[in-house]
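Researcher: I'm comparing several assemblies side by side, and this is the next one on my list. It has 251 residues spread over two chains. Same procedure as the others: predict the full complex and return the structure.
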Amino acid sequence: MEGKTLSIKNLLLLQGVVMIFSLVSVLSKFASGESFFSLRFLLFFGAELVVLAIYAVLWQQVIKRFDISIAYANKAMVLLWGLLWSVVIFHEKITFRKALGVLIVIAGVVILNLPEKEKAQPTKRAEEEVSK
Amino acid sequence: MMLAGSSLLLPVAIMVCSELLASSSQILLKKSAGITYENPIREYLNRYVLFGYGMLFLSMVLTILAYRTTDIYMIVPVLETMGYIFVLFFGRIFFAEPITRNKMLGILLILAGIVVFNL
């Protein structure tokens, strides 16, 4: 479909939406630390739903601009954000395996988003031009 | 929390269903995104999006269930990567999105990274 052109703006939008999505699990973790249906639980759970709704609205706009297979696989970047939040918010340690895993995922996402090289068709067209 | 023993069959079966639902929901969302609506609200309040998020909700419930059927928690996020492969094929089937070398290599690396992360 329209996935051939690599637009930095669209990629940033996609990554931003993935980052927003990663906040859902942060809020979910906060909510799970509270007793069921306490005020704080409802607050976190409510915030989780709000963030989820914002994500859903933005996601519809993002997938207009990408192949669905590319947009969806980009969600793997929640691994990076999740690791970041676990350190910044929950003060957990980064293990070597986790850092390595995230690096491999980033490499995969970069390759996934690389523009596809033009197939043989342009060359063929060029040859036809020459033969004329 | 655990309902079953250490057999992997149940969590795998549940996760296949969960990811088939999640992937199908993305196809419905993409279907809606390809339609031009006169009223912007209709971009969200239409049968594709509403049904799609219904399926996604069901998928989330199944994923939580999968965690409860195994004590090897790491297999759940690893099995979740099935979704990327399903969407790759569904995108090809429903929207003629090409399955390119970059997409295959990228998803393979993502899968490997998630395995390493959760080991």
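Model: For your comparison table: Residues 8-32 of chain A form the longest helix (25 residues).
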